[in-house]
Design a protein that fits this description.
The protein is mainly alpha-helical. Helices cover about 40% and strands about 5% of the residues. Strands 1-2 form a two-stranded parallel sheet. Strand 1, helix 1 and strand 2 form a beta-alpha-beta unit. About 15% of the residues are buried. Pfam families: UxaC (PF02614).
């Protein structure tokens, strides 16, 4: 599918933060810069499974290590306002570095 530019847009999530590097590496193999869709496979922010500062930072670091941070799809809306506030602080702090 990747050879004929027929790979659908896909967002992958993982349930275990220890797989961040594996998922990011897999996604990095499908970052087409050709006439097809750019970055058809993306790493979703499954932070509802990793609702800790370390879990969020590890996922962002895995994306950055694979050069995928510029294709990051962002965060989902979260109804838990206290956790969302923490997520926003970490997210903004990560990009301020």
């Amino acid at each position: 599918m990747a050879r004929i530019n027929a790979l659908p847009k896909t967002i992958l999530y993982n349930l275990n933060g220890s797989y961040n590097d594996i998922v990011a590496t897999t996604i990095a193999n499908f970052q087409s810069g050709e006439d097809g869709v750019k970055s058809p496979m993306q790493f979703g922010s499954g932070w509802w499974f990793n609702d800790t500062r370390r879990g969020m930072e590890n996922q962002l670091n895995s994306l950055a290590d694979q050069g995928l941070l510029m294709h990051f799809v962002g965060m989902l809306t979260d109804s838990r306002s206290l956790v969302l506030t923490l997520v926003m602080i970490i997210f903004v702090g990560f990009f301020a570095i």
